[in-house]
Amino acid sequence: MRTRKGAARTKAKRRLFKKTKGYRGGRQNLTRTAKETIVRAGVFAYRDRKVKKRSFRRLWITRINAACRMRGINYSQFMNGLTKAGIELDRKSLSEIAICDPTGFDTIVDAAKKAIAA
Fold first, then answer.
1. From the CB of residue 9, how many other CB atoms can be counted at a distance below 10 Å?
2. Which domains does the chain have, with CATH numbers?
3. Mean pLDDT (whole number) for 37-52
4. What are the transmembrane regions (predicted)?
5. Residues contacting 22, CB < 8 A, separation 6+
6. 18 vs 3, which has greater pLDDT?
7. Per-residue model confidence (pLDDT) at position 105
8. 57 membership: H or E segment, kind and range
9. Model pTM greater than 0.85?
């Protein structure tokens, strides 16, 4: 006897439509369109996980640069000074220090300036 895929297909569709919850129109409730949309969404999600890292790094660099320029030094000189001074802080923590603890950032900038001068 030939078997049909009734229960398995229904379950697969249910799994598919669970992923498309919140989409508009046919993207939410037409099988073929929903499948295409899920694949496309996965591609964007994969790509944008990488882009997110890049954009945050750009933000941190911009914040550090602004804070450094207020203290009379530019970003590249500051980073060079940190390397020479042996200060190993990442850009995320430097930007947080620049925002939350300006006096602490002043001491870091002074240390970088001294290392450049020496």
1. 11
2. 7-117 (1.10.1900.20)
3. 97
4. none
5. 28
6. 18
7. 96
8. helix 31-70
9. no
